[in-house]
Design brief:
The chain is of the alpha/beta class. It has 20 helices and 14 strands. It has 2 domains: 212 residues, 3-Deoxy-D-manno-octulosonic-acid transferase, N-terminal domain (Rossmann fold); 191 residues, Rossmann fold, CATH 3.40.50.
Length: 428
């Protein structure tokens, strides 16, 4: 109890820093200045769908912190709507991009708001306002006050699609006196892999189960895939160069990649390079970086039809499947520097050969399986990755073998959503 009070004290001491943080982020993303009241658990009627306003039906509440987690929720939300069509749906997130993604994907039928910060009174206001039937928290969002207040309000909380890297596990162990009592409050913990379940149990979770990853259950929009195939056809009419994709790149990765790219192709014609940064607030900075390298740039946001250049910047939202469908080879962002990798499963599902850097701790189980099944290849340095990329571009047969293995890999590991919904049935 003393540890929990110390945690609350630290939260209050840090209270002014939250708003300074939001203001700082809002310089690049003005949306961070919106809906501040929701960050403290205050919600207006305007933010709530009609089926929640009369407060007669308790909603199913699902929390996904940002874009990747919210996109991964799509098969879960579809399955929940089938399993419990009578219940309203409440979605919460923490970032403007996560909110925008939720609005684009689920805004027609779901109420979408920010989850409050982990202050007890704010969490209580949230729970009293929406009265959720149960909550499903994606990945590994462990907020002690949220867990304790939900348990006190008799709102079952399920940790779904849970993962916990070795480094995160060690960090949580340092504050085990705070984390263990909170972890015991989960009604159900469903981990992605056995190693995740073992670590979560060691932190205090009661009898976690293994469900797999719902990211294997994602279904791509056929129209977006067709759009990428049309881009590919249009680009190949303009140039005979192969198409290489740096997908979901993170800060610092583009600069390192372009430096190696320029060194490799200083004396020869380069493939057509496509760069799609992970975060939209970095689109302009990456565009400036590309120009600074003396490379001809074409921005997706400024074309009507696909136009070839030295580099195409994918500065649009919701079109990643199109870029995978258009490309010959994908280098996965987040894995070149220690960010833990972004989701490469979608690329595999679309038959785009995947090259990974050394940092894949966010997808440890998926990486092990993908490498074993020939769906991906992993290098330790940019030099190795660039060498492998060049080999693949010259070897149609090997590239096709990886493509086929990728599709088989993605299909073989489906089913996590069905397992999750079966476990949720008693709460719906």
């Amino acid at each position: 109890m003393i540890v929990r009070w110390a945690y609350r004290l630290l939260l209050w001491l840090g209270f002014p820093l939250i708003w300074l943080y939001l203001l700082k982020r809002s310089k690049k993303q003005p949306a961070y200045r919106q809906f501040w009241a929701q960050r403290l658990g205050y919600y207006s009627v305007d933010n709530v769908k009609h089926d929640l306003q009369d407060n007669t039906l308790r909603p199913i509440w699902l929390h996904a912190v940002s874009v990747g987690e919210m996109r991964a929720c799509a098969p879960i939300i579809q399955a929940i709507r089938i399993a419990a069509p009578h219940r309203p749906l409440l979605l919460t997130c923490m970032t403007p991009t996560g909110r925008e993604t939720a609005q684009a994907l689920f805004g027609d039928f779901a109420t979408i708001v920010y989850l409050p910060y982990d202050y007890p009174a704010a969490i209580r206001r949230f729970l009293q306002h929406f009265r959720p039937q149960c909550g499903v928290v994606m990945e590994t969002e462990i907020w002690p006050n949220l867990l304790h207040e939900s348990a006190a309000a008799q709102v079952p909380l399920v940790l779904a699609n849970a993962r916990l890297s070795e480094s995160s596990f060690r960090a949580y162990q340092r504050i085990l006196a705070l984390i263990a009592p909170a972890m015991a409050k989960w009604s159900l913990v469903l981990a992605q892999a056995p190693a995740d379940a073992e670590r979560l149990a060691a932190l205090g979770a009661r009898a976690p189960k293994v469900m797999g990853s719902v990211k294997f259950d994602h279904s791509n929009d056929a129209a977006i895939v067709a759009r990428g195939q049309a881009w590919r056809a249009a680009l190949l009419q303009q140039t005979s160069r192969p198409l290489v994709l740096l997908a979901s790149s993170r800060e610092g990765e583009e600069a390192a990649f372009l430096a190696q790219w320029q060194a490799v192709y200083a004396q020869t014609v380069a493939p057509l390079l496509i760069i799609v940064p992970r975060h939209p607030q970095r689109f302009d900075a990456v565009a400036d970086l590309i120009r600074s390298q003396g490379l001809a740039l074409q921005r997706r946001s400024q074309w009507q039809d696909a136009v070839a250049a030295d580099v195409i910047l994918g500065d649009s939202m919701g079109e990643m499947a199109a870029w995978f469908a258009a490309s010959d080879v994908c280098i996965m962002g987040g894995s070149l520097l220690p960010f833990g990798s972004q989701n490469f499963i979608e690329a595999c599902a679309l038959g785009c050969p995947v090259l990974l850097g050394p940092h894949t701790f966010n997808f440890a189980a998926a990486t092990t399986a993908a490498l074993a099944e020939g769906a991906a290849w992993q290098g330790q340095t940019l030099v190795e990755i660039m060498d492998k990329m060049q080999q693949l571009l010259l070897d149609d047969a090997t590239r096709q073998t990886m493509s086929t293995a990728g599709v088989q890999f993605a299909n073989a590991h489906r089913g996590a959503t069905a397992r999750l919904v079966r476990e949720l049935a008693i709460y719906l």
